[in-house]
Design goal:
It is built from 26 helices and no strands. The protein starts with a helix and ends in a 17-residue tail after the last helix. Helix 5 runs antiparallel to helix 6, helix 15 packs antiparallel against helix 16 and helix 16 packs antiparallel against helix 17. The protein is mainly alpha-helical. Helix content is about 70%, strand content about 0%.
Length: about 575
């Protein structure tokens, strides 16, 4: 019998010589690295990403469903749902016995469960299907299996969890694209339509990568290769008979053509691919025409238009989806997306009027959003719907210009009822958006102590590096209100401000934090000066210096919009 140590050494040497390694648990993704955030927050992010993946599974073409199930299994594993992960990987192995990632992932799961015989059996099957061991039952081309294995791994990089910066996210996206490139080099014999599915996902990754470059102000020469290659990929996807891929490809092409003006000269890829003179609106129109009788595709297009700020087009697309399928139980996505469009329109107008750039926001947007969400709540209530309708009732209950003034007590109470339902779920209790809304409702009702507890929870739940500082600003305002009402002593206020300001410094970018502090100082000058005197008396001079340093820098970055949190996550 072979020496186990020698076998292990031979296996390690073999792995080092491989051009690729099946499985998802070794990939260079943040998902596989030591988590930076507390376990509860990481679990929240994984569950939210998993919810999105479940919707991907509904739209995915047959070859891509395997990639989605692998990722669902990986998320289940990291959520300590190991039995669920095993079942998902076994399901893939039963449907596609030659799937390399299935056997590699199963071996990892069985290793975690301490089931050594099953782990070794999976490793043996993997070696056979990779062509590393003679096995008469391992029919098929190892090259094709390798290509599909790499494509499934590349797909996973579009759904990573835990990236702390745009640079980190860009590296993950680039790694996913590289895996697809390697898959194409192995997969010369892959069917054309399956390859078009790969091209579609690659184009999606490229567009997201170009978006990061655009936000960072990267040089044109860095963006051009990515931009031109994305056009070439989309040109191939437009030939697909799959209406989902073809419609979205036209939509993505319209997005790219709108970005051409961000270059000093028209990118050559536009001419090479035959898109010279093509109007982005025509592309969006073709996408809608292809999807006109298919609500799932129309709903996806509506979300993209909403993301792009094309709200009229998004509303029209939602309406088309509802004309085809009115039942809210079967087409809840259209109702929810249309409601989110109305909510965003109201908040956009609200921000403009506060900056002196427009008239009062149209409260009919809130009425429309409420009507749509109530249709969904009746038949398929859920966390996201409860949170969205809670937000609608909150804005219905407060004055547009003076948010601390209640105009409809019943609406505020209804908002709290829906937020309580949202908070009943394990996931809801970890959402800072929910705690922020609850705190704002309670503050208006005069329950300052309860509001303070909610705002503290917002700061605790926010991710490190988050730009959403509104919860911290509300916390400071609520503490100052308690102090001015003699509910807090000078010493208690000084201690609270000291503790939570230091916490905020560790949590939020310095520029965002300064902007939020300036907003609070401008609105509560007398209270802040009183706070400064109390801090001097307590000997907290470093904190006083920080406060006055913030006020001295007032005017820097004040034109930037406030980091209002998007509740429709």
């Amino acid at each position: 019998m072979a020496d186990p140590e020698a076998v292990a050494e031979d296996l390690d040497a073999l792995i080092d010589d491989l051009d690729y390694l099946p499985g998802h648990f070794h990939l260079e993704m943040q998902l596989n690295f030591e988590p930076r955030s507390p376990a509860s927050l990481r679990a929240r992010d994984l569950k939210l990403q998993r919810d999105g993946l479940q919707q991907e599974l509904e739209l995915a073409a047959a070859p891509q469903r395997t990639a989605v199930r692998h990722l669902l299994g990986t998320f289940a594993f990291y959520l300590e749902e190991v039995d669920e992960a095993r079942e998902l990987f076994l399901e893939v192995a039963r449907e596609d016995p030659g799937n390399l990632n299935a056997w590699a992932n199963l071996a990892h799961v069985y290793g975690r469960l301490g089931q050594e015989e099953e782990e070794e059996a999976c490793a043996g099957r993997l070696a056979s299907f990779m062509g590393l061991a003679a096995d008469p039952n391992a029919d098929g081309d190892p090259q094709l299996r390798a290509a599909r294995c790499l494509a499934e791994q590349g797909y996973a990089h579009g759904f990573d969890v835990g990236c702390a910066s745009p640079e980190e996210h860009a590296r993950v996206l680039a790694a996913g694209i590289a895996l697809y490139d390697k898959a194409l080099s192995y997969g010369q014999q892959i069917p054309v339509e399956e390859k078009r599915g790969w091209y579609f996902t690659m184009a999606t990754l490229f567009i997201r990568l170009d978006g990061i470059f655009l936000e960072q102000g990267s040089e044109e020469q860095k963006r051009l290769p990515t931009f031109n290659r994305t056009l070439a990929l989309l040109r191939q996807v437009l030939k697909s008979p799959d209406p989902h891929h073809r419609a979205l490809a036209w939509c993505y092409l319209g997005m790219l053509l709108e970005r051409k003006d961000s270059f000093s000269t028209t990118p050559m890829g536009i001419h090479d691919c035959g898109f010279s003179g093509t109007d982005p609106l025509d592309c969006f129109g073709k996408a809608i025409e292809i999807a006109k009788d298919q609500p799932p595709i129309l709903n996806r297009l509506a979300k993209i238009f909403h993301f792009l700020g094309k709200q009229d087009m998004a509303i029209g697309t939602c309406n088309m989806a509802l004309d085809v399928l009115r039942d809210p139980e079967l087409n809840w996505q259209a109702y929810c997306t249309r409601a989110k469009i109305h909510i965003r329109a109201y908040l956009h107008d609200l921000e403009r009027v506060k900056m002196g750039l427009g008239g009062m926001p149209d409260r009919n947007h809130l009425a429309c959003a409420k009507a749509d969400l109530e249709e969904v709540v009746k038949v398929c209530p859920g966390l996201k719907t409860y949170l969205d309708i809670g937000q609608v009732y909150y804005y219905m209950g407060v004055d547009a210009m003076r948010e601390l003034l209640a105009v409809d007590e019943a609406a505020l109470n209804q908002a709290l009822v829906f937020l309580a339902k949202a908070g009943e779920s394990e996931l809801g209790a970890t959402l800072p958006e929910l705690q922020l809304l609850r705190g704002k409702c309670l503050r208006i009702k005069g329950e300052e102590a309860n509001a303070v507890a909610c705002f503290k929870r917002v700061v605790e739940l926010d991710d490190a590096g988050s730009s959403h500082t509104e919860g911290f600003g509300c916390l400071l305002e609520a503490l100052l209100a308690q102090w001015s009402q003699a509910q807090l002593s000078d010493g208690e206020l000084g201690h609270e401000v000291d503790v939570w300001l230091r916490c905020a410094q560790d949590k939020y970018p310095a520029a965002r934090l300064r902007q939020e502090l300036q907003r609070v100082w401008r609105g509560h000058t007398d209270e802040v000066l009183g706070l400064a005197r109390a801090l001097v008396d307590q000997g907290r001079l470093s904190l006083v210096r920080l406060l006055f340093d913030t006020m001295e820098h007032e005017g820097e970055g004040t034109a930037a919009p406030r980091g209002r949190r998007a509740f429709s996550f």
